[in-house]
Design a protein that fits this description.
By secondary structure, this protein is an all-beta fold. It is 3% helix and 46% strand.
Length: 416
């Protein structure tokens, strides 16, 4: 098992970011039944702020205690801290077993030590797993299951203020086989907005999801971002408030449909970048994209299945957090037309009732179809400016055909 991934910290005393640099060649063979150790070079060796000395002067050993031929191993996690960046939220860990482990089960066993997100280096950048979905650079089949001997980066749990903590691997509780594990298809897609930034270098994903247990400030449900050295990769993220100010996250778990979320991007790329938005047709809220430079009036994303937006960065080599915003407002109306098109009918669903309002012309009939065009319900003659029905199908996205005295309108609605 030579050439597994390990990491070296990449500390730039001249710049404004601390990240991790992947080292893909270990050059050693791990022998089954023998002990082994991982090493990480730590930038936090007591160098005073502004010291330009070599931060890699000494190695910090990540040792493994316990019997590797047995069932339980404890690894020390070293989160560390320094004068310039404060306490680190990240630490390096590794699966010490020759079997796949279940990360969700590992978190359950160590809930006071680590949060429910991990990251691995993929080549272009970091890929991350969170129970509500992957973010960062795509890492294929990566998910809740971690391969044998795989190193990964974990996030400090709220309330864990120790610079060093013990992470316990109990194979009886965390092995994929013990949990009857099979690869999951994906996290729940409803009320989840996915945003992908793409250019020739890579595609990077972030997401915002409305979930029970979401918080208005940073919590263990969120997945933080870890930035590598600034390069051409379009490293997209959102911001979330914390006790120490806004924090970059890849998984932003919220519990409200009335807020504005800053959308940031870090890259040195100077060409066209494409932002692709998905999931608006399954999100029970009105959603708008704000580009303060080019489209300050906002772009309505509500009800769309996919929307792409091209832009050219006006600043490169820095994290830009003041250009884009995602605005969520309550779903009193769900439609494809812009909000200022008041002559068009409005359709929305609330309290298990579908409501259609046509302020400018009388409604003749209303039909409800699935996204494949199959008719599920049709009304009789309406001859009024409003229409309601409680004859609703299962939750999901549907097309509503509204025939009025002025013509036919096709709208989209999400029924939950």
């Amino acid at each position: 098992y030579a050439n597994r991934y390990t990491f070296r910290s990449d500390f730039n005393v001249e710049g404004d970011a601390a990240g991790w640099e992947a080292k893909t060649s270990i050059g050693e063979t791990f022998t089954l039944g023998q002990g082994f150790a991982f090493y990480a070079y730590n930038e936090l060796k007591g160098l005073p702020q502004g010291d330009t000395g070599n931060p890699f002067a000494a190695a910090e050993k990540i040792s493994v205690s316990g019997n590797l031929a047995g069932n339980s191993v404890t690894e020390p996690l070293n989160f560390g801290g320094d004068d310039q960046y404060g306490e680190s939220p990240f630490a390096l860990a590794a699966n010490p077993f020759m079997t796949t482990i279940d990360f969700d089960a590992l978190v359950t066993d160590n809930s006071n030590i680590i949060a429910n997100t991990y990251m691995i280096w993929t080549g272009p950048g970091f890929g991350a797993y969170n129970p509500d979905g992957n973010y960062g650079v795509d890492f294929g089949d990566g998910g809740q299951y971690i391969a044998p001997l795989q190193s990964f980066i974990v996030q400090r749990a709220t309330g864990n203020n120790a610079q060093a903590s013990g992470l316990t691997f109990d194979i009886a509780a965390i092995s994929a086989n013990a949990n009857n594990a099979g690869l999951r298809s994906s996290a729940t897609p409803d009320n989840k907005l996915e945003i992908t930034a793409s250019n020739p270098a890579a595609s990077v994903r972030t997401f915002i999801a409305y979930r029970e247990g979401g918080q208005p400030v940073l919590s263990d449900r969120d997945g933080r971002k870890l930035f590598s050295t600034m390069n051409a990769v379009p490293d997209v993220y959102t911001l979330k408030e914390s006790a120490n100010g806004p924090v970059a996250v890849g998984a932003n778990i919220i519990a409200t449909d009335n807020l504005t979320v800053p959308l940031g991007i870090a890259t040195t790329y100077t060409g066209v970048i494409t932002l692709t938005f998905k999931g608006m047709d399954r999100y029970d809220a009105q959603i708008e994209l704000i580009d303060k430079q080019e489209r300050p009036e906002g772009i309505v994303l509500t009800g769309r299945e996919v929307y792409s937006y091209d832009f050219t960065p006006s600043h490169t080599g820095v994290r830009v957090e003041d250009r884009f915003e995602i605005r969520f407002t309550p779903a009193t109306v769900t439609r494809l037309q812009p909000a200022d098109d008041d002559a068009k009918p409005l359709v929305y669903c609330r309290d298990n009732t579908l409501r259609v309002v046509s302020p400018a012309s009388g409604i003749r009939s209303v039909s409800l179809c699935n996204l494949q065009g199959q008719e599920i319900y049709t009304s009789g003659p309406v001859n009024a400016n409003t229409f309601t029905t409680s004859r609703l199908p299962l939750s999901g996205a549907y097309l509503v055909k509204v025939t009025t005295e002025a013509g036919i309108n096709h709208l989209k609605v999400f029924i939950k």
